[in-house]
Amino acid sequence: MTELAAPIIDPFIANTFRIVCLLFVAEVVGVCGIMTNVINILVFRGQGYQDGVNITLTALAVSDIGALISQQIYNLLLIPMIQETDLVILKSHLGVLVIYVNEYFVRVSSLVTSFASVERCVCVVMPLKVKSIITRKVVFTVNVTIFLVLSLYLFPPYFSIYLGLKIIPGWNRTVLSIFYQSYGESVLRLSYNFTDLLLPYGTFLILILSSATIFFQLKAKAKWRHSISSESLQSGKSVAPFKERKSVVMLMTVSIVCVLLVLPKSLMLTVGGVVREMKMDGAYKDITTIVYSFTSLLETINSSITIFIYYRMSTKYRTEFQKFFSVFKK
């Protein structure tokens, strides 16, 4: 009889790290993130939706709230006092159902961010045509379409399972449990290529290419502005491009932050799909637990910090933000 390999990291340490990272740190960040995204929505509503960017950023705030709420629910399931059979459904199985919802909203947020990045990229590359190409109606339609089409992400996992009663021998209880359909593994393996490979990495590629294009275009235009006379630079005509440039740089920053904070989780899931030992029930599950907890925290941070980027880099946002809170000071 072969002996099981000893874990690389003590399971107690791995579990403690997960609880501290998700149940404490991520919960605090997540609660703050939900509040800041609500503030974002109120500020953009106060600014109005004449600018299509505000529509996209409102959609981003909505998807971020969905990601944060679902992550909060998952984190609460880590409370040690809640036993596996204390709920109407096995605690670990409820976590599986919730985490798919979380991953849906994370993917929506990433794709909405990539659309905002492409929108600003078009603004920089074709400034005279952008108003006719990307209208408010187009922006609204694209954002709604992203939410609706990506809801198909939930179909393969939920189509592959069903809920049934399960008797827990040691607990003398019958609870709901997840059971996989006979075709479940085949469906999930097929959908994995799109939902966990093509979709996230395609989104990251769009974000990187758009940000790179914006960077080089702004750099080229900056050189051109330096080459013209100081009299032209001081004219009123240069003010509008400067404001537009600040908006572009702000969205480029949001895109870069999204890639830096969301990409690690996608890489981890890809490794888990290729290396059997790195799955949650694999030989290196202790390492997977730690990496998963940390990358989930990064996703929570990504969904929570946009307010600081907006406030720091957008004069219009800062003005409306201060106007909004000045009401409570009176």
UniProtKB/TrEMBL annotation:
**Which SUPFAM superfamilies does the entry mention?**
Family A G protein-coupled receptor-like
Keyword list, A-Z? Membrane, Transmembrane, Transmembrane helix
The protein's matches in InterPro entries, at most eight in alphabetical order, are given as:
7TM_GPCR_serpentine_rcpt_Srw, GPCR-Ligand_Int, GPCR_Rhodpsn_7TM
Q: Subcellular localization, per the record? A: Membrane
Q: Which GO terms describe its cellular component?
A: membrane
Specify the G-protein coupled receptors family 1 profile domain's residue ranges. 36-310
Q: Where are the transmembrane segments?
A: 17-43, 55-74, 138-155, 198-218, 248-270, 290-311
Q: Does the keyword Transmembrane apply?
A: yes
Record keyword Cytoplasm present: no
Q: Which Gene3D superfamilies match?
A: Rhodopsin 7-helix transmembrane proteins
Q: Name one GO molecular function term.
A: G protein-coupled peptide receptor activity
Q: What is this protein called?
A: G-protein coupled receptors family 1 profile domain-containing protein
Species annotation: Biomphalaria glabrata (Bloodfluke planorb)
